[in-house]
Specification:
By secondary structure, the protein is of the alpha+beta class. The protein contains 19 helices and 10 strands. It folds into 2 domains: about 240 residues, no CATH class; about 170 residues, no CATH class. The strands form 2 sheets. Strands 4-3-2-1-5 form a 5-stranded antiparallel beta sheet. It has a 5-stranded antiparallel beta sheet with strand order 9-8-6-7-10. α8 packs across α9. This is DUF674 family protein. InterPro entries: DUF674 (IPR007750). It holds the Pfam family DUF674. Keywords: Membrane, Transmembrane, Transmembrane helix.
């Protein structure tokens, strides 16, 4: 006898004339699924959105490239003892205990055995996120609102600021695993997620304007980075830096989506995720969530993996023995310039070389840009690069001593630099303070595109 596929019901209220979803009504099963999106680490999200569904694979900024570059790396030479790239490609969802009871769970990450102290989780942690007594209104851009009992739909439209006249129709959708996957893809790319889900058409990708983050700087987080910039448009072709920057980029894949939105002040610019996050923050803990702990797992999640850049504010990257890294030290350049020679085609192009110091704000900007742009270094470090656009090779530049400002030199590259030239240029920039778990590895440089 065939097994019936798990599914949940979603009631859509649609404008008959435009076929646009005005809002939806859902119970616990569907709302728990939406909430679970915030618990997914970026590495898991990238793996999932590349699966086939009604909408096909999608690309999320530069994260797909980061994910596949990690997958292509050599296990023997690049990973610290006790770590491996599966921890990045299939990172642990630290809210897995909440998600395991979802009626439709798209996270296929295999469970890992970890020690949990007795009494760490209450019984409510085994039953999703929200109470079963409430009905929720979901807007087209995934803002969640509890629906008062017997509240008329016209009043809901009024509260949402939707003005008529128009005729309404109700459509009931069976949300299967494929549709949940579609909904995840839409949530990361679109502001009209439910309409896109209903019509099963190509999702309209909305490219937001990028704004640099504003955070208090942390003097412990400082990375030297050499940027190779195309002078004609200020685009970063690649960067050269120590393994601490590789650690930072690798660790992006382990960050849960909700934690990223929180760290970026609710302004990740990723599809409809910011609205979903804020609506959950605004909901009353006691009335709608299983517990305060449950809500915190969504809006302020923590990571169980003990990596130096997991929590930027407690990073120890340059001092002391015993700090841990994804990447191993070594004497050779680890080439992240896959496809560089054939794709960039920059033969006989003027290149500016910029020496800069990456601090906390730049780390967060690169993280934010990696989710929305295919040129994460150019976008995330744009505030450091404006001076390079259209500048001449004969321009004089004085090195700056400001940590947030780059120093630069002009050079003419006759063809793409070779790996040997990159290695030579990096030898003088290697950090003497890089550490390893055993203190024996020397620093190594990494190339980032």
């Amino acid at each position: 006898m065939a097994t019936t596929e798990a599914q949940v019901l979603l009631k859509l209220v649609v404008n008959k004339d435009t076929n646009k979803v005005l809002f939806a009504e859902a119970k616990k099963d569907l709302v728990d699924i939406l909430c679970s999106f915030l618990t997914l680490p970026l590495g898991t999200i990238i793996r999932l959105v590349e699966y086939e569904s009604n909408k096909g694979p999608v690309t999320i900024g530069s994260l797909n490239s980061l994910y596949h570059s990690v997958a292509a790396l050599d296990d023997r030479n690049l990973w610290r003892q006790g770590y491996n790239k599966e921890m990045l490609l299939r990172p642990r969802n630290t809210a897995a205990d909440f998600c395991n009871t979802l009626k439709v769970n798209i996270d296929d990450t295999p469970p890992r055995q970890t020690f949990v102290s007795p009494g760490s989780f209450s019984e409510s942690s085994q039953n999703g996120f929200v109470h079963d007594v409430a009905i929720f209104v979901i807007t087209d851009d995934l803002i969640l609102m509890p629906k008062p009992v017997d509240y008329p739909r016209l009043a809901i439209l009024r509260d949402l600021g939707i003005k008529g006249p128009f005729s309404l129709k109700e459509i009931t959708v069976d949300v299967t695993k494929k549709k949940v996957l579609d909904l995840l893809k839409c949530s990361l790319l679109s502001k009209s997620c439910l309409t896109d889900l209903l019509l099963e058409n190509k999702t309209l990708i909305q490219r937001p304007t990028f704004f640099s983050g504003s955070v208090e700087n942390n003097s412990e987080i400082t990375f030297p980075l050499k940027l190779f910039i195309r002078k004609s448009d200020g685009k970063v072709l690649y960067g050269l830096g120590p393994k601490e920057i590789a650690d930072m980029l690798f660790s992006f894949l382990t960050f849960p989506l909700g934690g990223i939105v929180r760290k970026l002040g609710g302004n990740s610019c990723v599809g409809s995720i910011d609205g979903l996050y804020k609506s959950i923050v605004d909901m009353n803990d006691e009335l709608y969530f299983m517990s305060r702990l449950t809500k915190n797992r969504l809006v302020d999640p923590y990571l169980l993996l003990l990596m130096p850049l997991i929590r930027f504010e407690s990073s120890t990257t340059n001092e002391g023995k015993g700090c841990q890294h994804w990447a191993r030290g070594g004497n050779s350049i680890c080439s992240f310039i896959l496809f560089f020679y054939c794709v960039l085609n920059i033969s006989s192009t003027f290149i500016m070389v910029s020496h800069c110091i990456v601090v906390l704000m730049q780390c967060l900007n690169i993280l934010k840009a990696s989710m929305t742009s295919t040129s994460a270094l150019t976008t995330g470090l744009a505030h450091l690069l404006s001076e390079f656009i259209g500048c001449s090779s004969h321009d004089d530049a004085s090195p700056s001593h400001d940590d947030a400002s780059p120093s630069h030199d002009a050079c003419l590259l006759d063809g793409v630099p070779s790996a040997e030239e990159i290695a030579s240029s990096s030898s003088s920039d290697e950090s003497d303070s890089a550490c390893s778990s055993d203190g024996s590895d020397s620093a190594s440089s990494f190339v980032f595109i």
